Amino acid sequence: LSLLCLSPSVTSFGPVSFPPLAQSGLYSSFSQSGQTYGLPPFGALWPGVKSEAAPSEAPSTGQPGFLSFSAAYCPAQAAPLHYSYPSQGKPSVPATPNLWFFSSDSSPPESLPAAAALPTAPPTGAREQDDVSRRNSMGKSKGKNKKAESPPTETDLERIFLWDLDETIIIFHSLLTGSYAQKFGKDPATVLNLGLQMEELIFELADTHLFFNDLEECDQVHVEDVASDDNGQDLTGSGGAGAGGANSGVQGGVEWMRKLAFRYRRLKEIYNGYKNNVGGLLSPIKRDLLLRLQTEIENVTDAWLSTALKSLLLIQGRGKCLNVLVTTTQLVPALAKVLLYGLGEVFPIENIYSATKIGKESCFERIVSRFGKKVTYVVIGDGRDEEFAAKQHNMPFWRISTHGDLVSLHQALELDFL
């Protein structure tokens, strides 16, 4: 070992000093004095949201006049995030954008025991006392939550979802035209047959029980539109519409309008009485036919209605939120559709509007005048009518074209983005 240590062939290693590197003249320091940091446009923060300026807006504002949601938005967040709309009008860029757009709920539990912060366990008596107080506080919290889940009144609503019916919640019209079979690769003859059978049921229910023969030429936007002409007369024993029905008297006269109001009052009573049991209005044969059609249409449409119902029920279960239906179908056939497709519990008759006479833009105006401008409105549909109407009113619009759009909608609702 001593010889090895003295051998000249062994060299010692140590740190080598290098001369300092000088900055190359090719590069110069980058000045950030002119750089401004802030919130990018609304659509850039939310994937799948397309911002378009309304025609009447000045482009210099830099704010979106219309929000269009796309099914491409499919967030995968580990924890739920909360999105909050501005109370009214178009969105504005706040001073603290991160708090306004997305904020994770990181608040500690209300009933966290005091011992949790201590490095050592407390005495047995103190621990039992903490357990008792924790159970009491949890019980109070549950009581508060249950109380908050009561149905909201029209004065404390915060968000209203305006739904289209055909090809958005249900598949009906496209069954008859063949467009659904062509788009999704289904057998055209089978799809058309299902559509025709359901159409027959809809008009049979409308004619037989919902006075469509009388009301087809006296169609209204809303069931309460002629309620001011109703004198409250007892309709028992008069077929539900007064002697002679709505067609008696001079059209437009006082007597005629009064009996028309009787018809709509009775229509409302029938809807409310059978909204959870439409089979009670049908014969046993028609009831069996309805059950079969419901099953077969769900199969051929790959559970379209069930997928839409998930979002409808989620909204219904929230506090301070409401589902409203705005359809281009006449009011009475629309009510028949809602009943036959099992949507009576989701849409009270007071929340159903027909845009056949006045169009969807005017329908939206009526709804805004009813619920107020402080409410945030979200439009969900498949057609240009509701998209244009939403744009005119600066309402967010979520387009439904495929099953994926319905799935993405439900996911956005679950994550409180809508």
UniProtKB/TrEMBL annotation:
What's one GO MF term for it?
protein tyrosine phosphatase activity
Single GO biological process annotation from the record = chromatin organization
Name the InterPro entries on file: EYA, EYA_dom, EYA_dom_metazoan, EYA_dom_sf
| Keywords per UniProt | Activator, Chromatin regulator, Cytoplasm, Developmental protein, DNA damage, DNA repair, Hydrolase, Magnesium, Metal-binding, Nucleus, Phosphoprotein, Protein phosphatase, Transcription, Transcription regulation
Question: Key word Methyltransferase present in the record?
Answer: no
Cofactor annotation comment: Binds 1 Mg(2+) ion per subunit.
Q: What is this protein called?
A: Eyes absent homolog
